[in-house]
Amino acid sequence: MTRYALTLEYDGRPYMGFQRQAHGPSVQQAFEEAAETVVGHPVTLHSAGRTDTGVHARAMRAHFDSEKTLPPFRMGEALNARLRLAEQAVAVLDCVEVSEDWHARFTCLGRSYEYVIANRRAPLVLEAGRAWRIAQDLDAGAMHEAAQVLVGRHDFTTFRSAQCQSASPVKTLRHLSVRREGDHVIVAAEARSFLHHQVRSMVGCLALVGEGRWTAADMRDALEAADRRRLGHNAPPDGLYFMGALYPGE
Amino acid sequence: MTRYALTLEYDGRPYMGFQRQAHGPSVQQAFEEAAETVVGHPVTLHSAGRTDTGVHARAMRAHFDSEKTLPPFRMGEALNARLRLAEQAVAVLDCVEVSEDWHARFTCLGRSYEYVIANRRAPLVLEAGRAWRIAQDLDAGAMHEAAQVLVGRHDFTTFRSAQCQSASPVKTLRHLSVRREGDHVIVAAEARSFLHHQVRSMVGCLALVGEGRWTAADMRDALEAADRRRLGHNAPPDGLYFMGALYPGE
């Protein structure tokens, strides 16, 4: 049995999220079906994060176990060939062999996301489904300042979806920054793990700050209330990208 | 009669190029049909450049004449509303009123393009149809050096398609640069005007240089031969973006 660790890129638009669903396509199913034709037996893909419908990944980390052993480079090439044949919007960026104690989800030390806001009036064409368009001029500096309120160990109940299955609402947000690049405003977030919808919920509230409707103090009040009804706004999935994960020894 | 000057963004993938075609969708037709519902009479869209099938625009400059006069901002909003309703991959980024001696094609002083190469092994997912994937490591420095051979006034017959309708193969290339940004290699080109397929032909040959199969001297030989049979390679449309145009007084 050989464990392969993968770095995956995917476009979230055709999928009902990462995780296999009974009633629609998923990244997991797309990958597993491709892998099964390569290795000749059922495969389970484990990932660092389980992104929602419409959320993208630039570098999702994942693994699967194979009874067929190929050199990792050839395995990656074979998987990409099958994924292309099936016209899936998933690609293997990297494939390496790892020991059986390496687990994409359970040994992961950190996850990072970026959220892309296209701050412009015109409807999105080249970025349709790939960014959140906000027409009103955003104050990225004020957003960055308010973001610092959220950094650290907090009860993030306000920023948690009703479907969240995490045992505790307390998480440590290591990094949250907001930067402007031309007509884009980019929010970067890093933590060991996130609650369901946490990044999109934080971004929704940061957008209110950027529009001048919330202050950093409103952000602090919302956080301290630990009450989902205090959530200002949930950002759409379009602009969210899983950017990377960190493992011991990296 | 009011003349509106526009800046347009479009995704080239759904269209058989900018120019109206008898047998397929075009950017021109998409825009003209949207505009006709707004102004209530037939409209002709004139543009700075007529891009090929699959070529994109970040800022195409164009104009049309309208018997109905709206404030430019409202005209832009109305056009975008119709384009969205028709699910077209075209958006109006800017709309201003100009005098009748302003012509998107005939008064244009310069056009600029960028060509995006994704220099990576894995198939493209997030950039499918939006970049040219080259797996072999490219030497962007060597490409930039070879690009300088082409800058200036030359007979570009080697880099001209058989369908080119330009009166002369002599053009002045004002700028041609190659830069690396992570795993992307970006070619930027600027001239008053280009021959048909000129940018894609130049990029195709620059890629040969990047792969070490051509030298700057080979590029010079190909240029000086003024012979289409000496063309090394024509890059696909996917990576080509019309980036902007320049007019008197700008």
Q: CATH superfamily membership of the largest domain in chain A, which one?
A: Pseudouridine synthase I, catalytic domain, C-terminal subdomain
Helix share bin of chain A:
10-25%
CATH topology of the largest domain in chain A: Alpha-Beta Plaits
Largest interface: A-B, 22 and 22 residues
Q: How would a textbook summarize the main sheet of chain A?
A: 10 strands, mixed
Instruction: State the assembly state of the protein chains.
Output: homodimer
Gap from first CA to last CA of chain A: 24 Å
Task: Provide a short characterization of the protein structure.
2 copies of one chain form a homodimer. The first copy, chain A, is of the alpha+beta class.
Task: Please explain how this structure is put together.
Chains A, B: Homodimer. Chains A, B: Formation of pseudouridine at positions 38, 39 and 40 in the anticodon stem and loop of transfer RNAs. Chains A, B: This is tRNA pseudouridine synthase A. Chains A, B: Substrate binds at residue 113. The structure is a homodimer of 250-residue chains. With 250 residues, chain A is an alpha+beta fold. Chain A has 2 domains: 2-98, Pseudouridine synthase I, catalytic domain, N-terminal subdomain (Alpha-Beta Plaits); 110-246, Pseudouridine synthase I, catalytic domain, C-terminal subdomain (Alpha-Beta Plaits, 2-Layer Sandwich), CATH 3.30.70.660. The first copy, chain A, has helices at 27-39, 72-85, 140-147, 198-210, 216-225; strands at residues 2-10, 46-47, 56-66, 90-98, 110-118, 132-133, 152-155, 170-181, 184-191, 240-246. In chain A, strands 1, 2, 3, 4, 5, 6, 7, 8, 9 and 10 form a 10-stranded mixed sheet that branches. In chain A, α1 (27-39) packs across α2, α3 packs across α4 and α3 (140-147) packs parallel to α5. The first copy, chain A, starts with a strand and ends with a strand. The model of chain A has no long low-confidence stretch (mean pLDDT 97). Chain A binds chain B through residues 9-11, 56, 58, 76, 80, 83-84, 89-93, 120, 122-126, 128, 130, and chain B through 9-11, 56, 58, 76, 80, 83-84, 89-93, 120, 122-126, 128, 130.
